[in-house]
């Protein structure tokens, strides 16, 4: 009996010791596993930062067709891809332009071509997105050819000094680009070309009925071209960020496939639109920040430090705002988009200057408003518009600051030619997003039946926010007219 009890105690002690040893072993195993994971993560992070990822981290070269450019690239897991050797961005653009315009002029089928086009405002984000999409897609799809189209006449490129400055620093000449007046806009689609839309999501009517195969955009979804693939329409400060984020995971070796000049171009577009200032205080989303972090090691820029970002963004903003020499007509058309709701065609122009600067262009004291009125009325007549909206965006001067840069402010000017649009004057100030208030510039010497000027207290609201507000009001007016 005693012997049996001793035996059971011995077994119990042995079992307890075995469990303790097992627990210690498991703990040591977990610690080793954690250590290995941390080391692996650090090595991976270091490798990515210098773009020298070990072979086992790199995607294998794969055959890529049109599906590779979609949101669900199912064909990325097959065969092998014979990637083209790295080429300069300028050389790519020049070759694409020569071949595309040559085939267009010859009238041959353009079925293999995809025209990558930004919106009609022709800002840096649109140009960079179109160029980036065309270049990236050309590296992944050997079955089709891609050409970026700048939605600006060649003779009007000077209207945006920031575009001129950044294109030059990215070693892109005007002659490298296909501009709007280089082609008959209806002809590419007539010959079978497809379109990839960036920085907008509805093909402009000037291109006629056409096949839209891709959309990457950061504006409100207008609900068109639902079969486009990819069709990525999401919130971001810059469309260039979304283009970068879409293609980055698909490129086997970014350092060998992305020219530094393209990285510079894309980062500049992100900076000029967001200053990489995160939401809610700024416009930069996680996509914008991630895109910039991905591009910087591939660019001629050396850092994403706060000081560098602030300085570079400030330089770009200063160049963008150096348009005081432009005429009223040029100020209206340099950053302009046109819309149609029911019977009304209207345009919204963004001007990087306060109304006071426009008023001061008059040579005769006290006639500034007469000059503004003449400029806007002539523009409305030239474009057959029933309404013109001008959105000003500028920084006040603060002499107490070293930079001299004060508060960011906005103004909103509306001119109508159709009295049926007059209810808009009462409706738009009710919008809680824009926060319209009394203009702080003094008296407005304009006929209130056709004109209104407000201070826009929400300085973060751009045309992307103003346009949907106006559209909703006009749709309600059009509905009441029909009823």
In short:
With about 475 residues, the chain is an alpha/beta fold.
Descriptive notes:
This protein has about 475 residues and is of the alpha/beta class. It has helices at about 1-50, 90-105, 125-140, 160-170, 185-190, 240-245, 255, 260-275, 285-295, 305-320, 330-335, 355-360, 370-385, 425, 465-480; strands at about 115, 145-150, 180, 195-200, 210-215, 230-235, 335-340, 345-350, 385-395, 405-415, 435-440, 450-455. The protein has 15 helices and twelve strands. A six-stranded parallel beta sheet has the order 3-2-1-4-5-6. The chain has a six-stranded mixed beta sheet with strand order 7-8-9-10-12-11, sandwiched between helices. The longest helix has about 50 residues, at about 1-50. The protein is globular and about 60 Å long. The N and C termini lie far apart (about 105 Å). The model is unreliable at about 30-85 (pLDDT under 50).
Low-confidence stretches: 31-86
Strand order of the biggest β-sheet: 3-2-1-4-5-6
Determine the structural class based on helices, strands and strand pairing.
alpha/beta
**SS element count, helices:** 15
Q: pLDDT average, as an integer?
A: 84
Strand fraction: 15-25%
Largest sheet: 6 strands, parallel
Number of strands: 12
Distance between the termini: 103 Å
Instruction: Give the SSE order as H and E letters.
Output: HHEHEHEHEEEHHHHHHEEHHEEHEEH
Helix percent band: 40-55%
Structural shape: globular
Rg over C-alpha atoms, rounded to the nearest angstrom: 29 Å
């Amino acid at each position: 009996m005693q012997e049996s009890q001793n035996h059971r105690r011995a077994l119990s002690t042995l079992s307890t010791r075995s469990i303790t040893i097992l627990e210690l072993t498991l703990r040591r195993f977990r610690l080793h596993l954690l250590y290995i994971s941390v080391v692996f993560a650090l090595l991976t992070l270091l490798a990515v930062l210098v773009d020298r990822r070990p072979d086992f981290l790199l995607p294998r070269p794969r055959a890529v067709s049109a599906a590779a450019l979609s949101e669900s690239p199912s064909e990325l897991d097959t065969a092998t891809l014979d990637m083209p050797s790295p080429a300069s961005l300028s050389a790519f653009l020049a070759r694409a332009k020569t071949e595309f315009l040559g085939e267009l002029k010859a009238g041959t089928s353009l079925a293999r071509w995809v025209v990558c086009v930004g919106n009609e405002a022709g800002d840096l984000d649109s140009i960079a997105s179109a160029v980036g999409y065309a270049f990236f897609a050309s590296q992944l799809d050997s079955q089709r050819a891609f050409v970026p189209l700048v939605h600006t006449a060649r003779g009007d490129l000077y209207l945006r000094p920031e575009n001129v400055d950044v294109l030059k620093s990215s070693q892109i000449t005007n002659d490298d680009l296909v501009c709007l007046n280089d082609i008959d806009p209806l002809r590419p689609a007539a010959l079978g070309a497809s379109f990839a839309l960036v920085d907008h999501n509805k093909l402009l009517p000037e291109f006629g009925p056409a096949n839209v195969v891709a959309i990457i955009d950061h504006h409100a979804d207008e609900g068109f071209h639902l079969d486009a693939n990819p069709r990525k329409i999401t919130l971001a400060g810059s469309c260039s960020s979304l283009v970068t984020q879409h293609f980055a995971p698909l490129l086997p070796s970014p350092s060998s496939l992305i020219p530094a000049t393209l990285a510079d171009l894309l980062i500049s577009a992100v900076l000029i639109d967001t200053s990489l200032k995160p939401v809610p205080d700024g416009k930069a989303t996680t996509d914008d920040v991630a895109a910039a972090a991905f591009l910087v090691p591939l660019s001629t820029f050396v850092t994403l430090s706060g000081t560098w970002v602030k300085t570079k963004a400030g330089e770009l903003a200063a160049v963008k705002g150096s348009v005081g020499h432009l005429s009223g007509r040029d100020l209206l058309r340099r950053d302009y988009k046109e819309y149609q709701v029911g019977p009304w065609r209207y345009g919204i122009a963004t001007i990087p200057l306060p109304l006071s600067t426009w008023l001061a262009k008059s040579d005769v004291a006290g006639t500034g408003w007469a000059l503004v009125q003449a400029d806007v009325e002539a523009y409305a007549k030239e474009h057959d518009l029933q309404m013109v909206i001008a959105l000003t965006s500028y920084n006040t001067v603060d002499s107490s600051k070293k930079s001299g840069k004060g508060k960011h402010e906005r103004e909103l000017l509306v001119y109508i030619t159709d009295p049926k649009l007059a209810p808009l004057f009462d409706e738009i100030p009710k919008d809680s997003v824009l926060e319209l208030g009394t203009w702080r510039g003094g008296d407005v010497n304009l006929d209130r039946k056709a004109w209104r000027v407000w201070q826009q207290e929400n300085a973060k609201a751009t045309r992307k926010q103003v346009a949907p507000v106006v559209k909703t009001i006009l749709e309600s007016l059009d509905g009441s007219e029909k009823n």
